[in-house]
Structure formats: structure tokens, C-alpha cells
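Practice record 12: protein with FE2/S2 (inorganic) cluster.
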Amino acid sequence: MVQSRIALACPLPASETAASSGDGERMTDTLFEAYLRQYDDPAWAGFVAALRPSTHEVDRNATRIWFAFHPVSLQQALADAVDGEKLVRKLQLQGVWQLKDRIDSSHHFLYGHRYWPAVKQAVVERAESTCPPRTLNAVDQVLELAGEAAARLSVDRSLLVGIVAAALMTLQQVGLTAFRTASGAVHLDPSAARRTPDKVLRARARNDAQGAFGFLKGDRKSWTVTFDEQDPHATFRLINSQHLTTAAAADTRDHRARDPRCTEGPIPVECRTASCGTCWVGVLGGAEKLSAVDELERRRIREFGYIDTDEPKPIIRLACMAQAYGAVSIVIPSWNGIFGKYVRNQRTQAVETK
Ligand code: FES
């Protein structure tokens, strides 16, 4: 259906084409937006997995984390709600959950974020085009766009694959008008901007030196937890086997200006018992140095809607459940909520009514 729409509409201006669709789509949708809107979270998860070999290692985890942080199913549920504010309360959403409020900054933890202006330009040009793309395969679309932007920037395509995939999902969720209007600013500390991908990977793999007799320290070993790789001051210390939130709470700096949810250290926290979902984090580096997920954490992460996986040490964790046995690099999402059951029910209903 999407293919025939695109083939028929090529000679028409994008807005005119979309206005004639007449099947309930937004009147301002371009063909490319209509094309993107057919994809749900499972489809995108499949694309990200298929793109993994083509994605530079520095952004493999980051790309998966970004997609976990920005589920289109939640955005769609809110867009479809008769009473959006009531649904926000029902899903206990806190923080900044709408991607439209973070178009240029949501992906600051991807290495490819530094190439955002060129990526954004390539995606806008593709979305504004009235001619059919060479391929309707989403994976090929990402690779083609990444290749175009990489040629303009004279960098390796693999560095752009993750950020291009994030850009397309952002366009899907916010629409072309908002996407195009965003300033395109890059949010990067100058010291972070100078780092090569290899340097970032080495930093993630490194453990803190424990001194000549470190092997005797046992649980007195201590590690660095980095919670924003772009900020050289965004670290706290953790004593071996501490939970991430316990160690974070000892960081007495005021983090509320950055995120009002932060009342005890840089990681938002409420219950500390896997009940509220406030403390979820993505693990950019060192997932293998965290304790394995137990049954409670696995079940609750799924119920919250954050991730559904059998991996023993996944890249999305509840920080109040995860103990660290080495240095790790995490990223803290700008929001939290409890939406897993709701969006699964919505998906089931949509399938049943087809
Ligand atoms: S603080 Fe509530 S789930 Fe971790």
C-alpha cells in the first residue's frame, strides 16, 4: 500500500500528496512521513538489530538505548488519547517524555550526535522529496542516508548509522514541520568533541587502578560511574558491589537544575525496590560488570515498558537493583513511567480490529 502511494504521488508537491490521502492520516504528512509511520517498536528493534554490523561499535549500545528511551508506542498512545493529561497521570509519566521537546538533544549520548546537522539536513531533504526512494526497505534507507551524510562529512559511514536511525524515528514521532524547525544545535562539551571513537571505547573498557595491593582490597575496591560521557564532571564513586543508586546518593551535588526528579544524587530514585521505575538507566559500557538481572528486575522492567529481553545483563537496568563490580558508563533518561501493559493492550486491540 505504501509503495503504490509513493509511486502515484511522485509528481505532486509533498503537502498536496498527503492532503489527498483521505484515510485519516495527518493532512500535512509527506510521503516519507507516511512511509515511516507504518513502523512500530518491534519493527524498529528489528531494523536496529539488522543495522548492528554496519554500526560502529561506539554507537551499538547507544543506538539500542536511544530506541528504548523513545518508544513510538508511547508517543502513539498519547497522541491517540481522548484525554492526554489523564493518560499521563495513569501511566505515571514524570520528566520530559516527549521527543518533540528534545529533537536536537535526545541523542547527545551517541557518538554520531556530533554529526547531527548534516544528518538532519539529509533526512529533511529525503522527507521533502516528492520522488519515490530507491528502496522501501528501512534498513537500506538508513544505510543510504548515512552514506550520503558520510560522503558530505568525509567520515566513515558506520559512525552515522545509529544517529540516522534515531533521526528517522524522531521524524516519525514529531513530524517534518517540528523536525525541520528545530535549530539543529549540537550539545557537546569541547573535550568530548575531540575524542575519537577508539578513545571513547577504551575509556568505557577501563577499570580504575586499585594500587599495588589492589587485589587485597576485596569489597573495598572502588570504581568510577560515569553518568554523562559528554560532561567531564559527571561521575561518582562506587564501592565494589554497591547498587548504582546507593552510590549515586552519596554524590551530594545539586542535580535538580538538570533534572528536577533528582533528589538524591544524579539518578532519579523513589522506591529502591523495583516498584516505581524511576531509576531506569541505559548502560553504554560495562554492562558485563553489573550483577545479573534477577527475576524481579526482569519482570518489573517489562511491566514498566522499558525493555523485554532474556539477556542476563541487558543494556537497560533499574539502577536500584544493579550492583557494580567495575567502572561503568551509564546514561540517564529524561523521564520515567509505567506504560508496558497499556501499550501492549493497545497493540493487541489494534491487531484484533484489523
Ligand atoms: S527506585 Fe523505584 S524502581 Fe528503582
